[in-house]
Automatic annotation (TrEMBL):
UniProt keyword list: Membrane, Transmembrane, Transmembrane helix
TM spans (from-to): 35-58, 70-101, 113-137, 149-168, 192-223, 235-252, 303-322
Coiled coil: none
The organism of origin for this protein: Sphingomonas echinoides
Entry protein name: DUF2029 domain-containing protein
């Protein structure tokens, strides 16, 4: 963020130093300074919001000195590379998703649906954890009629955001480029399609394969985890796996599709504090940062390198999460849901 602000200041103020009109120079200086100040404020506010939401999960996981651990989120590359109001909008949906997971840890499913519905209104990327939430609702026998809370809250929040003119880059990107046909399978997103679309496949369309793979793997994920009792660290690990699978398989994703996964990986590493978890977190941070930098500099090759790191992290996490525990018994009695 600091480097971005410095470059913007040089580009804005450099020509101004050559002008012969001091009044115009002062007016431009004031205008650009105000824009930079607003961008910096929004970026810092977004980091603070996400850090507080992460702190709520760290406390529930029993992490030692959670306040000090939450400070690490202030230097997460994925957050620092999302400046201005767009970054603040991303921070709100990510924070709402984290609060939904905190409510899931407390088995407060109405709160979980409320938070997730609000997150979905800010950005459709909240759908990345939808398979986990659906698996939890099935596993914990939450009445089906209560599931409608999430879409109702989402529609109400969307109406408010639209009325006040709040920027919604996530929803805008869903419809971007549709007038000229479908966008590329990966719009600098560091997922498997960044590699596939670089292959010499000619005019072969893979959008149907991408959608089918996403639906099939999501269904398998829901079937697997709806029969498994999740709590504490295992719940966060399953949420991270859902975010990685969905972000890795969904077509037409932007470079910021792994923002939530980056932060969940940090939370899991801080909670488990083992080498494997930190390796996954570092791979995720590196891969996501490569995708974001490539998007800013218009260098698609960065997304392919980032995809390699993210695929490695996904496979490593999947082996650990999907390995059944010694006492794993999906038929054991499940505690009643708290609503």
């Amino acid at each position: 963020m600091a480097l971005s602000l410095l470059i913007a200041a040089v580009l804005a103020f450099g020509p101004m130093l050559l002008t012969l009109d001091p009044v115009a120079a002062l007016a431009r200086f004031s205008r650009v300074s105000a824009n930079l100040a607003l961008g910096a404020f929004c970026a810092l506010l977004g980091i603070a919001v996400v850090s507080l939401a992460a702190l709520a999960i760290l406390r529930r996981l029993g992490v030692a000195a959670p306040e000090r651990s939450a400070a690490l989120f202030a230097i997460a590359p994925s957050l620092l590379l999302q400046p201005g109001l767009n970054g603040l909008s991303d921070a709100f949906w990510i924070a709402a998703c984290l609060m939904a997971l905190a409510a899931a840890l407390d088995r407060r499913h109405m709160h979980m649906l409320l938070w997730w519905g609000a997150a979905l209104a800010f950005d459709p990327h909240a759908m990345l954890v939808a398979p986990l939430l659906l698996a939890l609702l099935i596993n914990r026998h939450v009445p089906v009629h209560r599931w409608a809370v999430a879409p109702l809250i989402s529609l109400a929040t969307l109406a408010v955001l639209f009325a006040i003119g709040w920027p919604m880059p996530g929803w805008e990107s869903v419809f971007a480029g549709r007038a000229d046909g479908l966008p590329p399978l990966s719009a600098n997103a560091p997922n498997i399609w960044a590699i596939v679309q670089a292959l010499p496949l000619g005019a072969l369309s893979l959008s149907g394969l991408a959608v089918t793979a996403t639906i099939g793997v999501s269904a398998a994920y829901i079937a697997r985890f709806s029969a498994q009792h999740l709590n504490g660290r295992s719940l966060i690990a399953a949420a991270l796996l859902a975010a990685l699978i969905m972000g890795g398989l969904l077509p037409y994703q932007q470079a910021d599709c792994f923002l939530l996964a980056d932060l969940l990986a940090l939370i899991l590493a801080l909670a488990r504090h083992d080498r494997a978890s930190w390796r996954v977190a570092i791979l995720l941070q590196a891969g996501s940062a490569l995708g974001l930098i490539g998007d800013r500099l218009d260098l698609p090759g960065f997304a392919m390198f980032g995809a390699v790191a993210l695929l490695s992290a996904t496979l490593s996490l999947a082996r650990a999460v999907l390995q059944p525990a010694a006492n794993d018994n999906p038929l054991m009695a499940r505690p009643p849901a708290r609503t």
